[in-house]
Amino acid sequence: MGDEDWEAEIIKPHVSSYDAAFEKDMYSSGANGDTFNRTSASSSEMDNGPSQRDHFMRSGFTSQRSLRNRDAGFSNSKFEDGDSSGFWKEPNNDCEDNQTWNRGFSKRGGYQDGNNPEASGPSRRGGRDSFRGCRGGFGLGSSSNEPHQDEGSQRTSGPFGSRRSALRGTGNGDTSQSRSGGGRGGYKGLNEEVITGSAKNSWKSEAEGERGDTQGPKVTYIPPPPPEDEDSIFAHYQTGINFDKYDTILVEVSGQDPPPAILTFEEANLCQTLNKNIAKAGYTKLTPVQKYSIPIILAGRDLMACAQTGSGKTAAFLLPILAHMMRDGITASRFKELQEPECIIVAPTRELINQIYLEARKFSFGTCVRAVVLYGGTQLGYSIRQIVQGCNILCATPGRLMDIIGKEKIGLSKVKYLVLDEADRMLDMGFGPEMKKLIYCPGMPSKEQRQTLMFSATFPEEIQRLAAEFLKLNYLFVAVGQVGGACRDVQQTVVQVGQYSKREKLVDILRNTGDERTMVFVETKKKADFIATFLCQEKISTTSIHGDREQKEREQALGDFRCGKCPVLVATSVAARGLDIENVQHVINFDLPSAIDEYVHRIGRTGRCGNTGSAISFFDPESDNHLAQPLVKVLSDAQQDVPAWLEEIAFSTCAPGFSGSTRGNVFASVDTRKGKSTLNTVGFSSQAPNPVDDESWD
Ligand SMILES: Nc1ncnc2c1ncn2[C@@H]1O[C@H](COP(=O)(O)OP(=O)(O)OP(=O)(O)O)[C@@H](O)[C@H]1O
Fold first, then answer.
1. Does any domain span residue 168?
2. What local confidence, expressed as pLDDT, does residue 655 receive?
3. Where is the signal peptide (predicted)?
4. Which single residue of 175, 215, 316, 683 could bond 630 by disulfide (Cβ 3.0 to 4.6 Å)?
């Protein structure tokens, strides 16, 4: 869309780009309405490997004692006698010893002990689950070739993987979107998403070829409004049996003069409306990150907070910000041409920022604080229409945010709070430049004049150092448990599976999990389509989410997964961070990510808020050896069984400084201001995701 168009679009009614004929094609006749391209993954294509059965399928997986003991569903004999059709076969040497045993790494002790804006505005309603519609499954692009054939070469072999900076334009925001067909990279448009290629070295030519193409089809998608009824707004899932165990996790606060933690919501002294909303949301007890972060933010301090996945970081920043806004009053008015939000929240993906927005809307319910969300893949005019109606809390993905700033639809001079959720991702090579642009935008208050808050479950040291540019010198660092550690409520299992055996194993697992919600992570968009297609062919109701799907499809896929219509969601790393979906019981890493922090985020889609979950990861020694050491560390720190074979690989690929023994090092403080940490950082990402990862981000 050209610059000249958006004004008109504000006035004109819009229909989305949705094409009924296309939908009919794409959403027909699969298992449970799922669609797949029957010609694209024909059995002949899939069944052209060696025909011998993989030894591992007979004996390896079932020898995982912990798995069998803890989750009978996974230790079914199906692993021993799966059918032989339709799979690539793997020579039988991909699992010599799959026994799980402890060698001093696991079971090392338990948890460580450790104006009066209120009610004056129009009420806004909606719900946390804005993703409506449980219609079709997924539409698929062509995936006629086995994807791994062009992916293997992209896997990283070094500890930090190969890195590539994201290429972003600075255009007008409405973008051309490619479908996944043809397996091309995911050029998604200016500013919103990275330009990538699915084949080695292809990104460059694609970037050059498409960068100047701002004339692609208009993005006209307007997301459905979130539900407006109070029940939907405050819908929530129950905290799990381990919620109270959060209290035993050791918390360390570093930096000068931190305010004391609070123990109860009452101690936070929030206004009545906020307290009501907290109660309606079902929150009765603070999580550790909330106990420490809320008073720090209320005291006006800058903060970098690291706490495990699913432990309530969103409310930890939203509640004190809202409390301040209620106390200080707000200035935005729906009648102003230029909206000047007091708070800007950025997050790396569209679905995550939408989720944060819904949380902001929930907690600000019944107040005159108005939250707005902007993200790519939606009509720019629609974004602008949202803003001009009044905007106090602006939740945005970086690309769309910079577009809107460029259009002078928001002013930055009133910004008091800048929040970077998934901050390590927001500061890496992919988004870092955009974030720097943001803080140096004309009008943006300097770091001395604003409060900057960063949250994540992982905080590589290099990223912490980069963060200093955004934060006041005396910022506080809150570490809940092990920085970068996995949530202990997720039972982690790593199994050795060769590339060619993965699909068979996946199907076996999914047949056992049945309708239990399961997220399957793969490394590339093309593979996500391929695996989703394959699962549908296997009559497993599946949908997929990745950066090549149109936004409407992404939201629909998430909606279908949330409501259980499609209990299996195949995803790239676009869904790895932040997504809070009720009842996700299993995460399967069909492909391991190239960096361990990504692993921590992925498995954190289950086991949230004190609930338990399981994660199974397929470890392919051909491509994943670089992850062995950090994986051993993450498993042992989370008191999980470490397979002997994984330890062997970890020791054999031992980097200087890796002791193997992490005993006694359950909690390592890694506020970089305190000097070099004891954490071994091999395999921890410090910059950007590798080219395969970042193709899916926006
Ligand atoms: N004090 C609380 N009491 C009950 N539920 C809570 C509390 N705090 C947060 N929750 C709920 O816990 C779930 C996880 O919270 P949230 O999404 O903020 O986690 P997170 O730490 O940001 O996770 P991630 O690292 O994956 O982004 C949400 O459903 C949220 O509503």
1. no
2. 56
3. none
4. 683
Span 174-199, mean pLDDT? 31
Shortest-distance atom of ligand 1 to CA 284:
3
Give the residues across from 455 on adjacent strands: 305, 421
* pLDDT tens-digit readout, 587-604: 999 999 999 999 999 999
Domain-embedded: residue 388: yes
- Compute, in angstroms, the gap from residue 310 CA to the centroid of ligand 1: 5
Count the domains in the chain.
2
ipTM value of the model? 1.00
- Domain end (from 480, 500, 529): 480
Structure tokens, 119: 């009610």
What single-letter amino acid sits at 619? F
Q: What is the pLDDT of residues 368-415, one digit of tens each?
A: 999 999 999 999 999 999 999 999 999 999 999 999 999 999 999 999
Residues 494 and 405 in one domain: no
Q: At residue 629, what are phi and psi to the nearest 5 degrees?
A: -60, -55
Residues 254 and 352 reside in one and the same domain: yes
Phi, psi (degrees; rounded to nearest 5) at 452: -115, 130
Which atom of ligand 1 is nearest the CA belonging to 287? 1
- Asked if residue 441 and residue 408 are part of one domain, the reply reads yes
User: What value does the mean pLDDT of the chain take?
Assistant: 73
Give dist(CA 656, CA 665) in Å, integer: 18
Residues 398 and 302 in one domain: yes
- Give the Å distance between the CA of 487 and the centre of ligand 1: 13
Residues whose beta carbon lies within 6 Å of some atom of ligand 1: 236, 239, 282-283, 285-287, 290, 307, 309-315, 457, 578, 580, 604, 608-609
Residue 494: domain span: 490-652
- Domain at 359, CATH number: 3.40.50.300
How high is the pLDDT of residue 330?
Answer: 84
Q: What is the number of other CB atoms lying within 10 angstroms of the CB of residue 282?
A: 12
568 and 442 in a common domain: no
Q: What whole-number distance in Å separates Cα of residue 317 and Cα of residue 454?
A: 9
Give the closest residue (by CA) to ligand 1 atom 10.
312
Average pLDDT over residues 493-500: 97
Instruction: Examine the domain organization and report whether 292 and 386 are in the same domain.
Output: yes
- Paired with 614 in beta bridges are 491, 586
Query: 381 and 256: one domain?
Result: yes
- pLDDT tens per residue across span 62-119: 233 333 333 333 333 333 323 322 223 323 222 222 222 233 333 333 333 334 444 4
Can you tell me which atom of ligand 1 is nearest the CA of 457? 25
Mutate to test the pocket of ligand 1, among 584, 587, 608 (most ligand atoms within 8 A of CB): 608
Q: Whose CA is nearest to atom 23 of ligand 1?
A: 310
pLDDT in tens, 162-183: 323 332 333 333 333 333 333 3
Q: Cβ of 223: how many Cβ atoms within 10 Å?
A: 20
Cα 171 to ligand 1 centre (Å):
35
- Pocket mutation for ligand 1, best pick of 128, 247, 311, 581 (most atoms within 8 Å of C-beta): 311
pTM above 0.90, yes or no: no
Whole-number Å distance, alpha carbon 306 to ligand 1 midpoint, is 13
Q: Is residue 585 a contact partner of residue 614, using CB atoms and an 8 Å limit?
A: yes
Distance, CA 316 to ligand 1 centroid (Å)? 9
Q: How many CB atoms lie within 10 A of CB 3?
A: 13
